[in-house]
């Protein structure tokens, strides 16, 4: 995952790129920046644009250099209508274009940025979006194959107009690299199966991240968790021989006036436990650690980018959910560290059990100004919203505004869901303070209402990413398998929230 990302400017006639990527909107006109070059190239660019109709978004038409000196090829990329091209569409187009160039064995590409600008987007946002799309779209997961994907796009560059001072854009470049590499780290780890990404491996990863990014980290083992009374977390882990790990990473700048906690579900494999899942697609539950990985990757980003004035804590309870002679059984009653008793009516609703202790730990240990949990929590949320977006639940106005703005910037869609209080009735248990499941309808809502019981008055949001954590096929900047949904959204969320909350 080593990328070379570079910003260039200057006269295109003197440039020497293997491929320069240029947009071709519907009714294409030659971008003014290319007129001089086209003269030198004897008009091949203008005539290519006239004769070649690029109908699909991201489709390429490549024009080789007819004179042999300078830029080797111009790749026109189909863009559709210019009045319909928002940043997310641009990100997808950049992903498609970069990936098809990569597959043609192009290792270095450069985007001519200015003609890609639509609406009144700023040049740095457009540049960042092109880089993100290209870096995310050309991902492939070949760690465990003897035959490696030898097509590697290692250099992605931007060609900027003369009036831009490249130095001013360096923070954007750092931000882009931190966000994209953290997203790709999430993909890698979520694609890695349960035998190779155990709670112990995740604890190791957390320590590596903390070291690399200068954060403090602690990992509570089973004994520590027992001492703290985390009966709900440990109940999930009981059926597994893999030791559970409760991971805490802390970013604490010298001056900070607010604190935010993230709690991410990291079930390294969810078989359902005694309430065993059906066999079909069970292997996908290797990625039931997507929320935890999103939180770890967000902490990595935070460590790299050092946002001002806000302390950020990432809490990741990690364990397996397996059936066994010692496993928790339907009907068992367990108690959280805060003393709440839970009747476990279904052992497959395990994410909320580990989050219950995670949320209580975050609230009591750090007294945060906001606490956010992130989880591949319910199939019900996927039924409600499909795979293109997560659902979020909150009663807090600042949090809701911040997540909406963050999603707008990152392109990771999310949709507000209701914390409809009457449904909380469904969580009543005959013999404990609460049951871990509600009735058959509105399952993602009762899951949220279950979690709300563990945060007291702390402003809170629950983000259910069971839909967008996985892609059934590659498209745009998403590649088949784990999508790495989360870290880009959560980092944007932090900066938005920290800027508005006093
Ligand atoms: N990890 C699953 C949820 C899930 C489903 C994530 C599909 C990603 C894709 C979770 O632990 C689970 O099994 N939830 C149950 C809850 C039910 C028993 C109340 C579900 O959604 O079916
Ligand atoms: Zn489950
Ligand atoms: Zn699960």
What does this structure look like?
Helix 6 runs parallel beside helix 9. With 502 residues, the chain is α/β, with parallel strands linked by helices. The protein is built from 14 helices and 20 strands. It folds into 2 domains: 4-169, Leucine Aminopeptidase, subunit E, domain 1, CATH 3.40.220.10; 178-500, 3-Layer(aba) Sandwich (Aminopeptidase). The radius of gyration is 24 Å and the shape is elongated. The strands form 4 sheets. Strands 7, 8, 9, 10, 11, 14, 15, 16 and 18 form a 9-stranded mixed beta sheet that branches. One zinc ion is lined by residues 267, 270, 288, 350-351. Ligand BES binds next to helix 11.
Helical region count?
Answer: 14
In the CATH hierarchy, the third-tier topology of the largest domain is known as: Aminopeptidase
Strand content: 15-25%
- CATH hierarchy: architecture of the largest domain: 3-Layer(aba) Sandwich
Q: Major sheet, described briefly? A: 9 strands, mixed
Task: Summarize this structure briefly.
The protein has 502 residues and is α/β, with parallel strands linked by helices. It has 14 helices and 20 strands.
What key phrases describe this protein's structure?
Aminopeptidase; 6-stranded mixed beta sheet; 2 domains; 502 residues; binds zinc ion; alpha/beta; 35% helix; 20 strands; binds ligand BES; Leucine Aminopeptidase, subunit E, domain 1; 9-stranded mixed beta sheet
């Amino acid at each position: 995952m080593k990328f070379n990302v570079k910003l260039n400017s200057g006269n295109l006639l003197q440039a020497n790129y293997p491929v320069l990527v240029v947009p071709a909107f519907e009714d294409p006109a030659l971008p003014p920046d290319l007129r001089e070059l086209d003269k030198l190239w004897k008009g091949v660019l203008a005539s290519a644009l006239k004769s070649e109709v690029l109908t699909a978004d991201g489709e390429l038409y490549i024009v080789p250099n007819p004179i042999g000196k300078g830029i080797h090829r111009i790749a026109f990329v189909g863009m559709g209508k210019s009045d319909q091209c928002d940043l997310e569409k641009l990100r997808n187009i950049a992903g498609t274009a970069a990936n098809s160039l990569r597959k043609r064995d192009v290792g270095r590409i450069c985007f001519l940025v200015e003609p890609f600008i639509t609406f009144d987007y700023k040049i740095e946002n457009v540049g960042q979006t092109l880089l993100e799309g290209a870096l995310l779209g050309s991902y492939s997961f070949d760690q465990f194959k003897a035959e490696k994907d030898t097509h590697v796009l290692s250099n992605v560059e931007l060609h900027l107009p003369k009036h831009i001072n490249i130095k001013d854009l360096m923070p954007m470049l750092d931000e882009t690299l931190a966000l994209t590499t953290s997203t790709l780290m999430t993909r890698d780890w979520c694609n890695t199966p349960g035998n190779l990404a155990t709670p112990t491996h995740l604890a190791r990863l957390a320590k590596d991240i903390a070291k690399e990014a200068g954060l403090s980290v602690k990992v509570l083992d089973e004994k520590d968790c027992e001492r703290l009374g985390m009966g709900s977390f440990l109940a999930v882990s009981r059926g597994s021989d893999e030791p559970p790990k409760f991971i805490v990473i802390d970013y604490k700048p010298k001056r900070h006036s607010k604190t935010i906690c993230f709690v991410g579900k990291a079930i390294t494999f969810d078989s359902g436990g005694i309430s065993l899942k059906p066999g079909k697609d069970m292997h996908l539950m290797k990625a039931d650690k997507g929320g935890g990985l999103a939180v770890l990757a967000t902490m990595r980003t935070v460590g790299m980018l050092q946002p001002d004035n806000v302390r950020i804590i990432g809490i990741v309870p990690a364990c397996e959910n397996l059936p066994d002679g010692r496993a928790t059984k339907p009907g068992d009653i367990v108690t959280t560290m805060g003393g709440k008793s839970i009747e476990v009516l279904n052992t497959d609703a395990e994410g909320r059990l580990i989050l219950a202790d995670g949320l209580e730990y975050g609230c009591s240990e750090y007294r945060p100004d906001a606490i956010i949990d992130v989880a591949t929590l319910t199939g019900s949320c996927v039924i409600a919203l499909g795979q293109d977006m997560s659902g979020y639940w909150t009663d807090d106005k600042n949090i809701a505004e911040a997540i909406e703005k963050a999603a707008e910037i990152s392109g990771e869609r999310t949709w507000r869901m209701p914390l409809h209080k009457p449904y909380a009735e469904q969580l009543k248990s005959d013999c404990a303070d609460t049951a871990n499941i509600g009735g058959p309808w509105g399952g993602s809502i009762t899951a949220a209402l279950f979690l709300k019981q563990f945060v007291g008055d702390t402003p809170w949001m629950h983000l259910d990413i069971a839909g967008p954590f996985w892609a059934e096929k590659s498209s745009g900047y998403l590649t088949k398998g784990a999508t790495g949904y989360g870290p880009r959204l959560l980092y944007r969320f932090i900066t938005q929230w920290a800027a508005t909350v006093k």
